[in-house]
Amino acid sequence: MTQKTLIGPFKQILTMQNLPVKGSIKDEALEIIENGAILIEDEKIHSLLTEEQFQTERKNYKKKRGDNIFFEITKDSILIPGFIDSHTHMCYAGSRADDYARRIAGESYLEIAKKGGGILSTVKCTREATNKELMQLLFERGLHHLKRGITTCEVKSGYGLDLENELKMLRVIKQAKESRYLIPDLVSTCLAAHVKPKEFESHEDYLDFIVKEILPKIIEEGLSKRVDIFIEEGAFDSEMSLKFLEQAKALGFEITVHADQFSTGGAKVAAKVGAISADHLEASQEEDIIAMKEGNVIATVLPGASMGLGVGYAPARKILDNGLCLVIASDWNPGSAPMGDLLIQAAVLGANQKLSIAETLSAITNRAALALNLNDRGELSEGKLADMLAFPCSKYQEIFYNQGILRPSLIWKQGTRII
């Protein structure tokens, strides 16, 4: 039976509608409804109401009358779409606190990896973890993310690096996605091409193994529609990565790429193969940005990795000024980005790169939805999923002015209030 819920009044509603999907955005472009409300029908947004429309509509509602519910907002609140985190590594076991201590003592990320730390140390722990243990860890992190306002997030494999354990990770993500637990909606990505495991002598042999053995099983079980690869020194070079991604694309996978984190080359591969997004981009130069623009690639920047590694941020301002679609994601992982707090990272990056609030907010809502190829969320408009956050303030600027420590006081996921 259809249920309608009227929620309001909100001091401001930021719809994130009618914004450009590429390039810079002025705050003046934000569509704001003052003292309005929202009407939800089951899981989706039925309509947005102006102040006058809301005052008329509320007369037809009592707190509970039949199947109609009125949820009155009694304090100043700003309503925005739920956050979308388009790049995470949240499914893992173990800790890399020792790696962190070594990094801040002067060793580089690549030096630590060569000495047995880094990604392969997480692979060891993840392989040893049971399905139940991985599931519990993913649920805990998912709930933590949800409380921070993330209603949808991507989760990668990549800490298995063999058939059994890559499938184990993706099965856990799928099971979590299909559960009724309070976690964000999950989008899985196969990152079996994270680094070469010790069991293989050559990088080419391992990538061939992924194409012939792992990807067909993923298709057979419906575990993921997306494939990623880490293009970097110590991982996979541009030439072999391009061949691998072309093979994955031919199998029907959407493509995303770990690109230009420490050195360039990955962004150009992303452009050549027609990837949806190139992620990281800390090392990207003008020519890499131009290549991504020509290839219609979304530029996803990961400030959490810059904060965790103590390196410079990706050139987000330059990316926008060159007319690209900019997305901000947390990169939550046990090595370079253990904080996983998307709002803090976005606020800090915005201050560093002189991004408008509209640009920053768009990068974690409507534009982030594009990076996951989702057209049913990311803005507040008729027919979209009712994934929404209410912040306890009177002006939207306060959300980022407080640099991430102002948290949502109310959260709705698919029309149901969960916090």
TrEMBL record:
GO terms for molecular function: imidazolonepropionase activity. Keywords: Histidine metabolism, Hydrolase, Iron, Metal-binding, Zinc. Pfam families: Amidohydro_1. Residues 78-392 form the Amidohydrolase-related domain. Its EC number is 3.5.2.7. It is an enzyme of class 3 (hydrolase). Pathway: Amino-acid degradation. This is Imidazolonepropionase.
